[in-house]
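README, section 4: Worked example with a bound small molecule

Sections 1 through 3 covered apo chains. Here we extend the same pipeline to holo records, where the ligand is supplied as SMILES alongside the sequence. The molecule in this example is magnesium ion. Nothing else about the input changes; the structure line simply encodes the ligand pose together with the chain.
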Amino acid sequence: MEYKITSFDEKETIELAENFESEKFPNMVICLKGDLGSGKTVFAKGFANALGVTDTITSPTFNIVKEYYSGEMPFFHMDVYRIDEATVDIDFSEYFVKKGISIIEWSDMIADELPKQRLEISFKIIGENRRMLIIKPYGKKYEDLCEAVL
Ligand SMILES: Nc1ncnc2c1ncn2[C@@H]1O[C@H](COP(=O)(O)OP(=O)(O)OP(=O)(O)O)[C@@H](O)[C@H]1O
Ligand SMILES: [Mg+2]
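The generated complex, written as structure tokens:
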């Protein structure tokens, strides 16, 4: 099953993130894939703001993982684009059981380390401000989530 949604501007992508946030559960994993500059970080920031994270969310490209604890639940923002250049060996599975929310940009780079149950969103640039989002739930919990949100 997959859902296709067109986002016509940044605000719509943020609203989608807010809608997913409103149905959050501990250990939720959201994997973001797709073109450079397509809106993955916009989505992650929108989600974090809705969660009540008060820190400034900066792209974790060079850190790989950033942890935020000021929101309603722990928020783990990962960007694994430069995973091969990183010297640290990160155990991602640890984050998926910390009762927080994990959002992973460029998740396909760590495909083997992703949990079986997860939400995947692929972003495609189809115009200056237009993005095609293909949303795929893996597992019952995430299927229910999509039914609630979409
Ligand atoms: N519909 C839209 N949804 C999201 N972002 C949009 C949209 N239209 C335009 N934008 C712009 O596209 C850019 C998306 O940047 P963003 O950093 O979120 O991309 P990214 O996918 O995280 O890139 P990277 O692969 O480098 O991490 C922003 O400048 C944002 O304002
Ligand atoms: Mg990004």
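What to look for in the output: The chain has one domain: 3-149. Helices lie at 10-21, 40-51, 92-95, 140-149.

Section 5 describes how to batch many such records.
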